[in-house]
């Protein structure tokens, strides 16, 4: 593990020498992009997490599957994946209090003990699990209690990005953001984010306190955010953090249909994995794999390279618990695509091409888009 610590320390020194770890610097999106340092050979290109946030490798790491949702994780493979991530810089690690009902935050807390500064940690509150199902709670009292619990599990005194996981239309978003801003003033949270929020909600929230990051599903199979959300984030200086950028593994080309998935794999219920839809989606993915082969990269690398080309403020968080997959995903940050290549990819994946919705109807009721 010493080499991981050394790599992380070198990266920290490099960033602090550039004066880029401080959070207080207010930059416009254009200034922020212009201020990005040239990438030293062998390291990942960096992107700024919000107008005045830290610089992180352009591709982050989604940690959800390390605790649940994609079948039982292998603890040693998870450890190797986290080691590989931290070797590549002070990376954005994405968690939530509901992943594994707290277990995912605990996992990161244990892993980061003694090297907290080697990662930028994002977590979320607001989805409250019940015996059967879940509900959304964004009340100010709940926000504060949830934050204390996340801090304890993560073993840290400050969360780098704290997201509202879902928006509760029953309560004014201003009240929730007010409570989150109190957490910033108390030094318990560095920056505020929203997940699956509509543009109008984001504007209302941003009027109360700067929104540093917006996390929403975005991939070749879910291109809807291109219309309004991605431009809005650029306008307000927020990072846009695409989740499920590989469409739950579909774009990586290594997934099975719903009827072959275990009961502990939540894709078993997702419309895009149901018989019929799955095969039609796979036919598109097979053509995409041929494009990737021509570029001598994996399908996952090509899908993420296309996505990164949508703006300097995009920082995708592909989920993996496999170090080799992590390397493929990070390789996207240095793969340059020509205009012709991008156009060919978009012809294969026009908006709305996916067969099946991205969530079940019940789950879709809690997203604002
Ligand atoms: N804000 C929200 O509401 C929300 C919702 C869902 C997820 N998220 C966050 O977003 C992150 C990413 O989303 P996600 O994990 O659901 O979906 P995803 O990133 O689209 O896909 C994850 C799947 O892709 C596979 N994969 C990863 N890299 C691969 C590669 N190079 N080649 C082939 N397969 C590859 C993974 O398997 P391996 O492990 O085998 O690589 C896993 O099964 C999550 O971890 C979570 O942190 C946020």
UniProtKB/TrEMBL annotation:
Domain of life of the organism encoding this protein: Bacteria
Single GO molecular function: oxidoreductase activity
Keyword terms, alphabetized: Oxidoreductase, Signal
Domain NADP-dependent oxidoreductase as annotated: residue spans: 59-347
Pfam families hit by this protein: Aldo_ket_red
Signal sequence segment: 1-32
GO cellular component: cytoplasm
InterPro entries: Aldo-Keto_reductase (IPR050791), NAD(P)_OxRdtase_dom_sf (IPR036812), NADP_OxRdtase_dom (IPR023210), TAT_signal (IPR006311)
Coiled coil: none
Protein name according to UniProt: Aldo/keto reductase
């Amino acid at each position: 593990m010493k080499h991981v610590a050394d790599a992380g320390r070198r990266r920290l020194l490099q960033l602090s020498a550039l004066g880029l770890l401080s959070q207080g610097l207010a930059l416009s999106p254009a200034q922020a992009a212009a201020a990005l340092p040239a990438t030293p050979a062998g390291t990942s290109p960096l992107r700024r997490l919000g107008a005045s946030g830290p610089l992180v490798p352009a591709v982050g790491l989604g940690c959800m599957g390390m605790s649940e949702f994609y079948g039982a994780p292998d603890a040693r493979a998870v450890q190797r994946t986290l080691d590989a991530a931290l070797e590549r810089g002070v990376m954005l690690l994405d968690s939530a209090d509901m992943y594994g009902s707290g277990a995912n935050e605990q996992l990161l807390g244990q892993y980061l003990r003694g090297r907290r500064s080697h990662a930028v940690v994002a977590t979320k509150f607001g989805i409250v699990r019940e015996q059967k199902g879940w509900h959304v709670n964004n009340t100010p009292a709940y926000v504060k209690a949830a934050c204390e619990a996340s801090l304890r599990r993560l073993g840290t005194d400050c969360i780098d990005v704290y997201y509202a996981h879902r928006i509760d239309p029953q309560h004014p978003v201003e009240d929730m953001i007010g409570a989150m801003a109190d957490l910033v003033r108390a030094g318990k949270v560095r920056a505020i984010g929203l997940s699956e929020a509509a543009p109008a909600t984001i504007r209302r929230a941003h009027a109360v306190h700067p929104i540093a990051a917006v996390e929403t599903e975005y991939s070749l199979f879910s291109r809807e955010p291109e219309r309004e959300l991605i431009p809005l984030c650029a306008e307000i200086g927020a990072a846009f953090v695409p989740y499920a950028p590989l469409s739950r593994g579909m774009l990586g080309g290594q997934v099975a249909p719903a009827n072959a998935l275990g009961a502990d794999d939540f894709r078993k219920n997702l419309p895009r994995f149901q018989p019929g839809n799955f095969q039609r989606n796979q036919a598109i993915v097979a053509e995409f794999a041929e494009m990737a082969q021509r570029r001598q990269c994996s399908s996952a690398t090509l899908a993420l390279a296309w996505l990164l080309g949508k703006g300097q403020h995009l920082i995708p968080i592909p989920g993996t618990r496999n170090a080799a997959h992590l390397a493929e995903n990070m390789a996207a940050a240095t793969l340059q695509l020509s205009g012709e290549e991008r156009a060919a990819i978009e012809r294969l994946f026009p908006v709305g091409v996916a067969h099946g919705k991205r969530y079940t109807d019940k789950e879709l009721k809690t997203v604002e888009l």
